[in-house]
Structures are given as C-alpha cells and as structure tokens.
Amino acid sequence: MMKPLTTTAVLLAAALVSLPLHAADSVDTSGPGQLIETTAQSMLKELDAHRAEYRKEPKKVEQLVDEVLLPNFDSQYAARLVLGPHWRTATPAQRDRFIKGFYNSLVRNYGSALADFTGDRLKVYPAQIAPDGLRATVRTEVKRSNGDRVPVNYSLRKTDSGWKAWDVTIEGISYVKSFRDDFGAEIDAKGLDAVIERLEKGDTPAPQKKAA
Fold first, then answer.
1. CATH of domain 5-200
2. pLDDT per residue over 69-88, tens digit each?
C-alpha cells in the first residue's frame, strides 16, 4: 500500500533536516551521532529564522537542502545500491544522470515539507557504531501531527572524507531497498533510460509499503 504523500513528505523532510550541514554553527563532526544531533539543530535554527520566506518560496527550500545535504550524502553509493545489478551494466553517462536525477527528484518532491518542520517533533538517540568502526546507525523519532512517534533511522558509513549518510529507514522501510525494488522492475520493463528521463522530470513516487 502506498504511503500517503503528505506523511511521507514530512518524514523524509525530517530525514533531510537531520543530515549534515556544511561548516557552520558549532557542528560537531567527531562522530555520526554528534553530526546528526548538532546539524539538526543548525538546520532548524535556519528554518526558524526564515520560515515565512521558505514557505513563500519553496525553491529556496530546495536550494537550502541542496547546499546542506549534497556534500555529506553519499549519493553515488546510494544510487549504486538502488540500481543493484543494473549499475554494472549502466554506462558512466547513465550512472551520472541517474545519480543526479534521483537526488534532485527527491529534493523537488519532498524538500518543501521542511518549511513546516519544527524541532519539537524530532528526537535523536545515541549512534550505534559497528565493531569495524566504519558503519553506523543513528536512530531518531519524528512526531506526527496526531502525536504518534515514528522511527526514522539513518545509515552512515565512514569514507576518506568523513562520515556520509546513504540511507534512511522509516517505520522499518529502507528507502534504498524500496527504490531498488521499484526501479528494478521498471528498468526491466522499460529500460534504464526511460527511468532516468522520468527522474529528470522530477517524478519520484514514494516507495511502496508492502502489505503484511
């Protein structure tokens, strides 16, 4: 069953608001948990200061997300996992177009929900770092408008340039896995170029939640 777009938008916006900000207000980059915690507060500070402006001009929200998210989101790694076996057969040009199209489409579809996101709706828990020290999970909870709390967890990995986020799991649903399943079937049916062209037009449906 498809998750309602408004609910998905708010939850994914919570994911975006918690992802790393560039060097700015007292951002602690010493570990994945500190990174998520301090950057969430930095982003919320910016939203609180200019909320009316962001609500009036959604394009500015997209620009803000692009500025603060892209440098710290491992978009190539995420795209490679989303494409799965299709990554190996894709040309370098197709890979590049898919990475950009997928990321930009997500921002266009969900970024505007950030304008209404407030700090009292987010709780961040301590990071769980794998024994190898190269992977981590940061658990958070996002409060819906009806008061329900929804688990939103981030997967990060340590790269040569620091910790990078590459997946978000909402209510047990991994966006990487869900998009891999959805895109895989579509690529098999229509071809990779058709999927890329759809993404470049900004059409990214929410991943489907499988019925229990």
1. 3.10.450.710
2. 666 778 899 999 999 999 99
